[in-house]
C-alpha cells in the first residue's frame, strides 16, 4: 500500500517566487461523487489529474490528517481528458511550482478560476515526525483543515468563502482542527 505523508501550509509572503525551479499546469477532477465524499459516504477519493502530456488516476483515503493511503496509476491522456470532460463534478485548475529548500521539495499550488487567490505549499515527508526546513515564506499549517483539501475546493471554492467562513477556518486552525 502507498502511504502519502504530506503537510500543507499557507504562505506568509511571496519570497518563494524567486526560488521556483519549474512550474506546470494541473487540471484535476473527481470521479467519485464529491457529495459522497463530503457526506462521508465514500472511503476514498478517486481523482483524474492531467499535467502537460501526462495523466494519472489517483486513489486516496479520505481521513483528515497528514498520512493517508494513496495509489497513483498512469492513464492515457485521451482517456483522462474524456473523464475530466464527462465524468467529473467540476475541474480544479492550478499552477504547481517546485521550490527546493535545503534538499527538500516544496510544491506550491497557485489556484486558478474560482479558487484564484489561494496559494498553498505542500511538502511530502518520509515520516510523520520528520523535521524539515521552515523558510520565512512558509505560513500557518492547514494540514488538518478539510476546507483546504482539493476535493472540497471544487464544491466550495475559495472565492465563495464568506468572511465568517474564513474566520471559522482560523478558529478551526487555532483549535487543532476541532472547530
UniProtKB/TrEMBL annotation:
Domain of life of the organism encoding this protein: Bacteria
Any matching Pfam family: CYTH
Domain CYTH: 2-155
Name the record gives this protein: CYTH domain-containing protein
Native species: Dyella lipolytica
Amino acid at each position: 500500500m502507498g502511504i502519502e505523508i504530506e503537510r500543507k501550509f499557507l504562505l506568509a509572503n511571496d519570497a518563494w517566487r524567486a526560488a521556483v525551479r519549474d512550474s506546470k499546469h494541473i487540471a484535476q477532477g473527481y470521479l467519485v461523487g464529491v457529495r459522497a465524499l463530503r457526506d462521508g459516504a465514500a472511503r476514498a477519493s478517486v481523482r483524474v489529474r492531467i499535467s502537460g502530456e501526462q495523466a494519472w488516476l489517483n486513489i486516496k483515503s479520505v481521513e483528515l490528517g497528514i498520512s493517508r493511503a494513496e495509489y497513483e496509476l498512469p492513464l492515457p491522456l485521451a482517456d483522462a481528458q474524456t473523464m475530466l470532460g464527462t465524468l467529473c463534478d467540476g475541474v480544479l485548475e492550478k499552477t504547481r511550482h517546485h521550490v527546493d529548500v535545503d534538499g527538500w521539495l516544496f510544491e506550491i499550488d497557485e489556484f486558478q478560476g474560482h479558487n484564484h487567490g489561494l496559494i498553498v505549499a505542500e511538502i511530502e515527508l518520509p515520516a510523520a515526525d520528520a523535521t524539515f526546513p521552515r523558510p520565512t515564506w512558509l505560513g500557518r499549517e492547514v494540514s488538518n483543515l478539510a476546507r483546504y483539501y482539493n476535493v472540497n475546493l471544487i464544491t466550495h471554492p475559495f472565492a465563495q468563502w464568506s468572511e465568517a467562513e474564513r474566520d471559522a477556518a482560523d478558529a478551526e486552525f487555532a483549535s487543532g482542527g476541532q472547530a
